[in-house]
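agent> step 3/5: call structure_predict on target 'Phosphate transport system permease protein PstA' (Rugamonas aquatica).
agent> reason: downstream docking stage needs a structural representation; sequence fetched in step 2, passing through unchanged.
tool.input:
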Amino acid sequence: MNQVMNPVYRKRLLTHRIGIALSVAAMSVGLLVLAWILITLAVKGFGALSVNLFTQTTPAPGSEGGGLVNAIVGSLMIVGLATVISTPIGILAGIYLAEYGEENKIAAVTRFVTDIMLSAPSIVIGMFVWAMYVATAKHYSGYAGSVALALIAVPVVVRTTDNMLRLVPNSLLEAAFALGAPRWKVAMMVRLRAVKAGVITGVLLAVARISGETAPLLFTALNNQFFSADMNAPMANLPVVIYGFAMSPYDNWRELAWGGALLVTFSVLALNILSRTVFSQKAPN
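tool.output (status=ok):
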């Protein structure tokens, strides 16, 4: 009773309740905005879903019908190649940081550069690839788009791999060393295997991160109205098509943009759910 009547206690309790109320209010506003976006996207996007969306190419200006098959295939190829490039580089770099991060300055510099790349605007990376690749080759290409997206995905994979490997208990590593296993085998066969689900989660999060990027592809892959599987030429992709169609004066194009936005959003949502459920992993015991 004395504690309840204590003015200091009552002041702290009031501050606590105000903080909780503000936190709940902020969370509610964020959830309401997210729900508003998803509901609007679902209402307008589902109306654009049809067989033509997955079987026909993007229509010419002012024409009716058409679909996004060229953009869908282009996005899958560009993101797929970017994943193939970034996954081994990111995992190997993460292993290096976890194994030698406390022993030399190269690892410290690598971790510093990784942190910078994580926060770098994607448009800057797109301009960098344009200057180094597109301007040299003198044409846009799907390869350039994959390189740009890979540069965005690599730091995500590196940071996730590094963090997950650091969760492996030292007792497990010491047991492997006691059996005479060399350091590289301990890193690859013991340490990495113990947290493989977490590493896969990092790869999936990186794929989700790059799936909706538009700015880098504007400077690298650009777009293509026709179906093309040539990665050495301009290639259609969903983010750029959505950007162009959403800004157009044609109702048909805007409807296709909503359909494409729905595909990208739910694909990213599915990857996030997959990474946090199927491949979720706690620290190994």
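agent> step 4/5: record observation. The chain has two domains: 2-46, 52-277.
agent> proceeding.
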